[in-house]
Amino acid sequence: MGQASECKHYVGCIGAYHELIMDSLLEMCDEISRNGFKKIIIYNSHGGNIKFLDFFAMKMPNLNKDYVVYVTGIWSLARESEQKIYDLAGTRDLGEHAGLGETSIVLHLRPDLVYMDRQDATRGSRQNQLASLKKHRVFSGLTWYGDFPEHYAGDHTNATAKLGKLIVDLQSETLCEVVKYIKADNITPVLFKEYDANVCNPL
To answer: Can you count the helices (H) and strands (E) in the chain?
Structure first.
């Protein structure tokens, strides 16, 4: 269950209230902690969740939990990894929904689900309906919709399973490294305890 309010105009979208998602995330984290895990990684693969999950992580201080939540995502790659992908793709524009990158990933993982001829690549171009606001770094709840009202974003034409495999392999390697870093992190839990104590007695 994720944040999907910008695509509720499509049949099949199940959109929950943001408060319900927040409460559900907290409940899941509490349950994971109750089962003995005190460092929890939320690994995100949906662009619509990025700000939402960052906000969830910002809720955690002062809740006096006995665990720490870390948020990261599939596109949190090192520059060297990104460059390998761009070199193989022949472009830095991997698109977004059903673009070059995502289509390549699915060609690698589930090629039986990809029908390259069913989508007109020209319909994946950015519409820039809110360009004047974006120019001034103003965000609204429909900024994404203003660019991609059909939610197809990018050009899938040159997608390949080889590119998809490289992306998935690099994402997997990066996640493994992140897990190692978090397992070794002894500072964040201490900072949370310190912060929570200071919040209770700021004077």
So the answer is: 8, 2
